[in-house]
Write a structure and sequence with these properties.
This is AAA ATPase-like protein. With 666 residues, this protein is of the alpha/beta class. It is built from 31 helices and 14 strands. Strand 6 and strand 7 form a beta hairpin. The protein is globular and about 100 Å long.
Length: 666
């Protein structure tokens, strides 16, 4: 009859997946391999499987007849003598294996451990330490320990390993995708989800229970020092990437720097050039827990983040706008309209957008021919000559190899006859625009003419995500843009995906025996910001309109646009603010609007809070300063301080003019 310990060991072995490298290396050490390490240091965030791996290693050591000393940092006292007494066998019994779990709770012991205790080990002894933190750099840099210490950061399980764990736990096949989306490769989340599934209702859609969430928050996140730290975690859980500036803007916390540093040091948070982000399981757990625990708070946090992203879209440098658009849509990735068209995270996540070099023209033509045929490739050749700046390529980060390209065209009114005669799709788009809402002189239409990704041709992909984010960013900044068009070969599928996003024009074009559909929006009828708000929130109520029918968000955008166009007389004379009630009865609306804007900016100084805001607005837009940085230098202000005054000034000015729009001058 097998002992209970043997039965537990067998069960653990059967349920354990992954970590082959760690198991193999430890096995070599158990068998006396001279090249094997003496100390194994395993670290990673909560729930990543450190304790499970220690138990598995312990079972192997026990099976080899080794003496085990198993300690837990949570239950060790602060007296080093107590530790040495508990671990006495390590220095007195040859072949003893010392396991120390949860080492982050006794980190004070580390220097003593490697400098004074471990060198006294009995012959053949081994050490396995597991905790949330990496070892001290002084230890890893010590050449004496170079061949004796192996440091391994435990990463999430791969997709195959996570699937094998769920299969071993008898999770029903129809629920595995939902569990994997929630848990990622985090073993604790997978194990808890599997246990919860075993008692779930047959046929019901899987979702983490309150008990699972409570256990995961405690296991993955641990103790949170204060309510401010909790709010910072909630920002990081929802935001695509969190910066110190984002924390300060969304939370209005005095110690945003301290909160950011705390986030940065959490073991389940990664640092990237764009900011911080939590591992998948931690992110999904924090979001699900907040949504369940405080749904109103969850929505309020999401809305604050959305407003900050929209502000950034209005004010960010052009090279940052596309990334901010991506961040905004990521925040609302559970909205059905976005789920139909975007993927965010996939096997293609290692793609990046780049400019097209002339030496890659042949590759682009070859890809077009492969995906759409020779006639389409000839049209690509035409546009390479006419608008080469409209081409972008997408490369693999790992190798730099080009795997896709897109082409965005800008067609002024009237378009070049050569372009219309050459490309039937462009000709059809132009006819449609003229028949429905003609493009006036000074305006243009924009079109994503080609989206060629042979491996994932015109299905939702990271290429389409990145391309569409750029389109939306350009639409936010473009002046005189009338219609926008997307072109898809599988127009039936895309008509369903784009429902509520873009209109199906009904126009179908033939190129080389292949039919293409055109999907469109008229940016003159719906401001980009209003369209984005509609896109990210299907339940949003229509915004309040002024007497002219202008919604408040569109009005605010029109004020900002008028200021940005101040030094361009032609563009200012066509700005949207001229169509509001502000200058409805004026004899000279253009000049009167300029006078009104100057007076409204000057009036801000009547309130002490608005003095700096007025100076920032006047210097940025009326003084002739070529850039905001130059305006900041004229005022002798740090750029960040200037931007803060400028944002306040824009908010105050929009509020003042909106009051006038609603109620007139009296």
């Amino acid at each position: 009859m097998h002992s209970l310990g043997a039965r537990l060991s067998t069960a653990r072995a059967r349920a354990f997946v992954g970590r082959e490298i760690e198991l193999d290396c430890f096995g070599k050490a158990l068998h006396g391999d001279v090249d094997a390490p003496f100390v194994f240091w395993l670290f990673g965030p909560g729930g990543i499987g450190k304790s499970a791996l220690l138990r598995r290693l312990g079972d192997r050591a026990r099976a080899e007849g080794r003496v085990l000393v198993e300690l837990d940092g949570r239950f060790l006292g602060r007296d080093p003598a107590d530790f040495e007494e508990a671990a006495d066998a390590f220095v007195s019994v040859p072949g003893t294996v010392l396991f120390i779990d949860s080492f982050e709770h006794c980190q004070w012991l580390e220097s003593r451990l490697w400098q004074r205790f471990l060198p006294r080990a009995a012959p053949g002894a081994l050490v396995v330490v597991a905790g949330r933190l990496a070892p001290l750099p002084q230890w890893t840099a010590d050449p004496a320990w170079a061949g004796l210490l192996q440091v391994r950061e435990l990463r999430p399980l791969s997709g195959g390993e996570a699937g094998a764990l769920l299969e071993a736990a008898s999770v029903r096949p129809e629920r595995r995708d939902a569990v994997l989306r929630f848990a990622g490769g985090n073993p604790l989340a997978l194990t808890l989800a599997a246990a919860a599934d075993s008692v779930g209702r047959v046929g019901s859609e899987w979702a983490p229970s309150a008990e699972v969430l409570r256990t995961l928050v405690a296991g993955l996140v641990g103790e949170v020092p204060s309510a401010a730290h909790r709010r910072a975690l909630e920002v990081a859980a929802q935001a695509h990437a969190t910066t110190e500036e984002l924390l300060a803007a969304v939370l209005a916390e005095q110690d945003a720097s301290g909160l950011f540093q705390w986030l940065r040091e959490l073991p389940f948070v990664e640092s990237t050039p764009l900011g911080l982000y939590p591992h998948d399981a931690a992110r999904e757990t924090l979001m699900a827990d907040l949504r369940w625990r405080a749904p109103t708070t969850f929505q309020a946090m999401r809305q604050r983040l959305a407003e900050e992203y929209l502000r950034l879209l209005r004010e960010a440098r052009p090279e940052r706008v596309r990334a901010v658009t991506d961040d905004l849509f990521y925040l609302f990735r559970d909205v059905q309209k976005l789920q139909r068209t975007r993927v965010w995270v996939s096997a293609e996540e290692d793609l990046y957008e780049d400019v097209l070099d002339i030496e890659d023209h042949g590759l682009v033509l070859s890809m077009a021919k492969q995906a759409e045929g020779p006639e389409s490739a000839e049209l690509v050749r035409h546009w390479l000559t006419r608008q080469p700046q409209g081409f972008s390529v997408f490369r693999l980060i790992s190798s730099g190899r080009i795997v896709a390209f897109t082409t965005r065209l800008v067609l002024p009114a009237p378009p070049d006859v050569t372009d219309i005669d050459t490309d039937p799709v462009v000709a059809a788009a132009w006819r449609y625009s003229q028949e429905t809402a003609p493009v006036r002189p000074g305006e243009h239409i924009a079109m994503t003419r080609f989206s060629i990704y042979p491996d994932r041709y015109q299905v939702p992909s990271r290429v389409i995500d990145l391309s569409n984010s750029r389109v939306q960013a350009e639409a936010m900044r473009a002046r005189g843009r009338a219609h926008g068009f997307l072109v898809y070969h599988d127009h039936t599928a895309w008509a369903e995906r784009l429902q509520g996003v873009l209109a199906d024009s009904g126009v179908r074009c033939d190129v080389g025996g292949r039919e293409y559909g055109l999907f469109t929006i008229d940016w003159r009828k719906i401001p980009v910001e209003k369209w984005i708000r509609h896109l990210i929130d299907a339940t949003e109520m229509p915004p309040l309109s002024g007497p002219s029918g202008t919604p408040r968000p569109a009005f605010d955008q029109a004020v900002r646009e008028a200021l940005q166009l101040w030094r361009d007389p032609g563009a200012f004379a066509a700005c949207a603010l001229l169509r509001t009630r502000l200058v409805a009865d004026c004899d000279d609306p253009v000049q009167d609007l300029k006078d009104l804007l100057r007076q409204a900016v000057e009036a801000l100084a009547a309130d002490p809070r608005g003095v700096r805001a007025k100076e920032a607005l006047a210097t940025a837009f009326f003084s002739g300063a070529p850039t905001q940085e130059a305006a900041a230098r004229r005022l002798g202000l740090p750029y960040g301080t200037f931007r803060r005054h400028l944002r306040q000034g824009l908010d105050l000015l929009c509020a003042s003019l909106w009051e006038r729009e609603l109620y007139g001058t009296n």
